[in-house]
Amino acid sequence: MPARSRNGPAVGDDALAPGPALAHASALLTQRGFHEVARNARGDSLYLARGNDPGRLRLSNHARTPKQRRGHPEVLASLVIRQPRNPSQIAVMVETALRDFAGGQRRRDQAATGKDSTIGA
User: Fold this and answer.
1) Is residue 113 part of a domain?
2) Could you tell me where the Basic residues compositional bias lies (predicted)?
């Protein structure tokens, strides 16, 4: 019987540990036009960008602290993998991170132009 993760469905025999799962997520994001622009000293967080956009998508095995969020507003979304995940779960997490990244871009661009998307709605 497949192992069950603490916060989700059974992960099965094809589950990847957090490190390889993050590498798989990075490969999926590379296929979607992202490239690595930075990595922290420990190597447990990497930052991806798409094209010349200054926004970053962060991949890590841990969440950011409020201080880190304030100090790095260029990070528009994070994908955090703390537990083993199978490839299909990782693909869903990547799609969610892409949606969050697009939302972060919209919020950033609206703030830069001073427009509020709720006005006139």
Assistant:
1) no
2) 59-70
